[in-house]
Design brief:
By secondary structure, this protein is mainly beta. It has one domain (37-396): Kelch-type beta propeller (Neuraminidase), CATH 2.120.10.80. The chain is built from 2 helices and 26 strands. It has helices at 17-37, 61-65; strands spanning 41-46, 54-59, 75-76, 78-79, 92-99, 102-109, 114-119, 124-128, 139-143, 146-150, 168-172, 189-191, 214-220, 223-228, 239-243, 248-253, 260-265, 270-274, 283-295, 298-313, 316-317, 323-328, 331-341, 344-354, 367-378, 391-396. β13 (214-220) and β14 (223-228) form a beta hairpin. The chain starts with 16 loop residues before the first helix and ends with a strand. Mean pLDDT is 83; it is low at 1-35 and 66-70.
């Protein structure tokens, strides 16, 4: 991936006391406006019980940003779903979806192929239509008021009961909430799978089919980008993009996406994502765009352009987080789980603000960020799943 050449700094000039005061005032105003415009973050945590299996909590990013010293005060994560989401099941994934009718949290997946829809404003919960085929922890993305569910581990055996065809489905919120109790509500629609999936196996391969697993994904413009895990010694299969208007897959790059998990948009063409462990781990900011190219010898096709900017704070690389969430223009956060103490559990949210994100052309080879840590407690909650990370989603709305 290409990196930008560091531009020479201009000669410093001596500023007057008045200009210094005006600069400090403008900086404080921008910081206050940024805190006000930050989105609330909703955490979905997995519980140890079967019913309910998940619960939703809210943390106030704007209030946390206003804490002097950035994280000296322990705050409480506010439970929104009472004792939990009654329609949620283990094996679900969650995504935030927005349309002109509102904003919701959608969960889909698990052995029953169920769908649960939660309104964090009214705190109402709805049952949505079932997936055509159950998917275990599917990849969920939302584009233009439509949720796309993609099998994370596509299977070719019907007896597996999970992640069989169709591997890709979509559900629209553009006509309102797709509720199961309404006859005229939308339902999940089958879509073509990416060529990366086991679509064209040889008959002999069906006896012992190879393992397929999505390693990284992102939404760039009107495309859903997807790459698969690469086995040791295996050549990269490349990156494929699904055009949500044309409803067709196309190879957009010969290499796999250079990150793991989901890359979240932090404004314009900038995305935040985690780096692979074999590349040293840590977080990076990526500039990603898709353009249409053509030549006299080949028809027009889509091409992915990626530029990587490793992220550093105070001269040190940021350790690799598992979950990212955007907070607004040029800012994002990562979520980590803290060891339990008695009946209290906690998580730590690290908030990052990219310096100079307004002028994306000025990003240097290593992006400098300002960061602050904030700790949140889940008081009285002793039913979290006994794992190193019971938080399965951090969604900003």
């Amino acid at each position: 991936m290409a990196t930008k050449r560091r531009l020479p700094f201009p000669n410093p000039t001596k500023a007057s006391p008045r200009s210094i005061l005006e600069t400090k005032t403008a900086t404080k105003r921008r910081r206050d406006e940024s805190a006000e415009n930050r989105k609330a973050v909703y955490l979905v945590a997995e519980l140890s019980t079967n019913e309910p299996s998940h619960s939703v909590f809210m943390v106030d990013a704007a209030a946390a940003a206003a804490v002097a010293g950035g994280g000296g005060e322990v705050r409480r994560a506010h439970p929104l779903s009472g004792s939990g989401l009654t329609g949620a099941k283990h094996g679900m994934s969650f995504v935030a979806v927005r349309s002109e009718h509102g904003s919701w949290i959608l969960g889909a997946g698990g052995r029953g192929g169920c769908t649960v829809i939660y309104d964090p404003i009214t705190m109402e919960e709805f049952r949505g239509p079932h997936l055509h085929w159950p998917k275990q922890e599917p990849v969920l993305v939302s584009v233009g008021g439509v949720v796309y569910a993609i099998s994370r581990r596509p299977r070719v055996r019907l007896a597996s009961r999970l992640d069989y065809l169709p591997w890709v489905e979509s559900l629209s919120f553009n006509m309102g909430v797709p509720r199961l109790d309404r006859m005229d509500s939308p339902y999940w629609k089958s879509l073509p799978p990416p060529p990366l999936f086991p679509c064209l196996l040889r008959p002999s391969e069906y006896r012992n089919p190879p393992d397929y697993c999505v390693s990284s994904f992102a939404v760039v413009g009107s495309h859903i980008l997807l790459s698969m895990e690469q086995l040791p010694g295996e050549e990269q299969r490349g990156t494929y993009g699904f055009h949500v208007v044309d409803k067709a897959w196309e190879k957009v790059h010969d290499c796999n996406l250079p990150f793991v998990g989901q890359a979240v948009s932090i404004g314009g063409s900038l995305f935040a994502a985690a780096m692979p462990n074999n590349g040293g781990g840590g977080a990076s900011v990526f500039h990603m765009s898709i353009i249409k190219v053509s030549s006299s010898s080949s028809p027009a096709s889509w091409q992915l352009l990626v530029q990587e900017f490793p992220v550093a704070s105070l001269g040190r690389m940021i350790p690799q987080p598992r979950i990212f969430s955007p907070l607004g223009e040029g800012s994002f956060c990562s979520v980590g789980w803290l060891a339990s103490s008695g009946r209290s559990h906690g998580c730590q949210i690290k908030e990052y603000q990219i310096e100079g994100a307004e002028s994306k052309k000025d990003l240097q080879a290593t992006v400098q960020v300002k960061h602050q840590d904030q700790t949140y407690q889940f008081k009285g909650q002793s039913r979290f799943l006994d794992t190193h990370m019971p938080i399965v989603a951090a969604l900003s709305m």
